[in-house]
Amino acid sequence: MTEGKVSMIEAMVDVFGSAITGSEIQCGDQQVVHVEPSNNLEILTWLKNTEGHDYDLLLDVTAVDYGSVPGVEVVYQLWSITNKKLLRIKCPLPEDSLKIRSVADLWGSANWLEREVFDLFGVQFEGHPDLRRILMPKNYSEGHPLRKDFPLRGRFSREKQTELALKQDYEDYYSPEQLEGFGQRADD
Amino acid sequence: MSVKQTIELPQGNLDSGNMLVNIGPQHPATHGVLRLLCELDGETIVQIDPDIGYLHSSFEKLGEFRTWNQIVPLTDRMDYLAPLMYNCVYVMAVEKLMDLKVTERCKVVRVLCMEMERIFSHLLWLGTTAIDVGAFTPFLYAFQERERIYKLHEAFTGARITTSATRIGGMMADLPEGWTDELRNFVETFPETLDEIDSLLTRNGIHLGRTQDIGTISGSDAVNAGFTGPNLRASGIDYDLRKDRPYYDYETYAFEVPIGKNGDCYDRYLVRMEEMRQSLKILDQALRRLPGGPINVDDPRVSLPSKTDCMNDMESMIHHFKIVTEGVRVPPGDCYFAIEGSKGELGMYVVSDGGEKPVRWRVRPPSFVNLSVLPQLAEGHQVSDLIMINASLDIVLGEIDR
User: Fold this and answer.
1) A78, B333, B343, B377: which could join A55 in a potential S-S bond, CB 3.0 to 4.6 Å?
2) How many residue contacts between A and B have a Cβ separation below 8 Å?
3) Is A135–B56 a contact, with Cβ atoms under 8 angstroms apart?
4) Please, what sign has the CA dihedral across residues B283, B287, B289, B295?
5) Which of B224, B333, B338 lies at the smallest CB-CB distance from A107?
6) Which of B354, B98, B336 is nearest to A66 (CA)?
7) Is the CB of residue B21 less than 8 Å away from at least one CB of chain A?
8) How confident is the model at residue A123 (pLDDT cuts 50, 70, 90)?
9) Is B376 in Cβ contact with A146 (below 8 Å)?
10) CA–CA gap between residue B249 and residue B289 (Å, rounded)
């Protein structure tokens, strides 16, 4: 069991060299690998498609803002159905460039999960087909709530929040523009 | 007195373009506050954009401002259809991070809770899905049985929905007297109702017509889309955490995992029906093996010293004071722990820096990922099928929006 894990890390280091910045075991049996954010797409593609690894199920994409370190860490949870193995990939992003390439082409499940990370942490996923806010209203202007510098009650004062809520137009919520290319296929 | 009205017919070409129809957010068939923005060509769906977030309560942010035990009440408010399951998985994740082994009795009690919740949640799905295709009777049957589980909730925790029954290292209380007899009574008599519902739906022509070959997804597509739980197994992929990543001695219980073949609404229905029967088997075995002994772990990091000790011994009193005022401390590190929830893989990702509050508490939401496949499943079908497909995914908006 331990040998298999060591060889998996070794194989990753063989292929990607210094893009693998570290690895550790958490809670006794959870394999964690730290990678360079600029290589995330290649590494995840390799993990998904290489025989013997087959991490075919992307369980979760999320992010952590530690507060003590500037920036955000993007976390992928992978599971291999055939090998019954769990793997956690972590990509630390520096505060001044919160962007990483999207894996939505690789896994359909990444689409909404990455939208959520964008919405709550402000991480830009390059190449995402539809990067919009998902949980917060689309005209939400107070920032990204799960960042540590975001106050629990929001950035704006209560007066400002009430004022914005009263000013809202119902068209903000019922607009056909939300559907991309609405009506285009009607002429066929 | 009669009023004559002339109706003016539109002249020239009727506008035959596509139509934009807004379903929800307040609509009984969306099973919560879900809004679906649909572009229709006649009755056929061209594209859908699900709009979520109406129930967003920012639980994950709130969790960062609460001590570890104070998060438990937030978890049952996410999935109000299986609250005990969410209580359990959260503390299980924290216990794994602390490397804390709960007592044997606590383990079996939590298995009882989780399997009871699976039936509880599947019954709501069964009733509301049946009502969506016009069958009213199964809804009433299912809710009568759910009421019995509500009573068990109430007897155990004092609340019907917001149970908050778990604590790090154990449960908030031991099972009340006579509770297991009530549960055993449920396990013995519930199959009768289930058979009745089964005979009303499984071979019912209308139900078959509304569900077979509707919302079909292949196994590989389902994996790619992140499906888990009954939805994934209906597409023929054998992935059940109770078998593949066992926790709480699930490998020692005898039960089978139902696997579907076609991945349509009907297979999702069959898989869930069989899962309820298998959960009854697990409940039966767990009730038989329920051991005695303490329910809470005896570990100075989480458990309070006895009142007698506090009154006689200075160290114990300081210890009591520390745990009550500061809360439990969790060692630095991160942990992803998941169980087979009623709706799919329900995971908790907790990150600690050694303090009394989490740095990050993340829920891996099964319904959120399952719902994201809805456009792919429903496009090309009719509006009435959209309602059926949405119902067959078994979503709960409290957990999607969090």
Assistant:
1) A78
2) 130
3) yes
4) positive
5) B224
6) B354
7) no
8) very high
9) no
10) 12
Instruction: Name residues 81-120 of chain A within 8 A of B (Cβ).
Output: 81, 84, 86, 88, 107-113, 116, 120
B-chain residue closest to A130, CA distance: B49
Any B CB within 8 A of A49 CB: no
Calpha distance A59→A64 (Å, rounded): 16
Task: Quickly state the pLDDT bin for B1 (edges 50, 70, 90).
Answer: low
Which helix (H) or strand (E) covers residue B20, if one does? Answer: strand B19-23
pLDDT at A174: 65
3-class secondary structure, B209: helix
Find the distance separating the first CA and the last CA of chain B, reported in whole Å: 58
Residues 6+ apart with CB under 8 A from B327: B67, B68, B69, B70, B356, B357
Query: What CA–CA distance (Å, rounded) separates B233 from B268?
Result: 8
Mean pLDDT on A71-75: 92
Return d(Cα B88, Cα B343) in angstroms, integer: 15
Q: State the complex-level ipTM.
A: 0.87
Question: Of B150, B152, B126, B120, which Cα lies nearest the Cα of B140?
Answer: B126
Length of chain B: 402
Instruction: State which H helix or E strand residue B1 sits in.
Output: none
User: What domains does chain A contain, in order, with CATH numbers?
Assistant: 2-139 (3.30.460.80)
Secondary structure (3-state) at A178: helix
Say if residue A148 is exposed, middle or buried (CB neighbours under 10 Å; 0-12, 13-18, 19+).
middle
* CA dist., res. A136 & res. A138, Å (int): 6
Alpha carbons within 13 A on the beta-carbon side of B354? 2
Is B52 in Cβ contact with A134 (below 8 Å)? yes
CB B351 within 8 A of CB B334: yes
The yes-or-no verdict on residue B242 having pLDDT over 70 is: yes
The amino acid present at B221, given as its one-letter code, is D
Residue-level pLDDT at A6: 58
What does the alpha-carbon distance between residue B181 and residue B349 come to, in Å, rounded to a whole number? Answer: 36
Q: What SS3 class is residue B178?
A: coil
Instruction: Note the helical H segments in B290-357.
Output: 307-312, 314-326
A68 and B368 within 8 Å at the Cβ level: the answer is: no
Report DSSP letters for A77-122, one per residue: EEEETTTTEEEEEEEEE-TT--EEE--TTT-TTHHHHHHHHHHHH-
What are A76-122's pLDDT values in tens digits?
Answer: 999 999 888 899 999 999 988 899 999 999 999 999 999 999 999 99
**Residue A87 and residue B187: Cα distance in Å, rounded?**
38
Asked whether the beta carbons of residue B336 and residue A86 sit closer than 8 angstroms, the reply is yes
Which structural domains are found in chain B, ordered by start?
19-49 (no CATH), 59-303+330-401 (1.10.645.10)
**What is the Cα A64 distance to its own chain's centre?**
10
Residue A152: which of B16, B65, B333 has the nearest Cβ?
B65
3-state secondary structure B65-121: CCCHHHHHHHHHCCCCCCHHHHHHHHHHHHHHHHCCCCCHHHHHHHHHHHHHHHHHH
Cross-chain CB nearest to A176 (options B20, B52, B58): B20
8 A C-beta contact, residue B352 and residue B334: yes
Instruction: Give the DSSP H/E element, type plus range, for residue B258.
Output: none
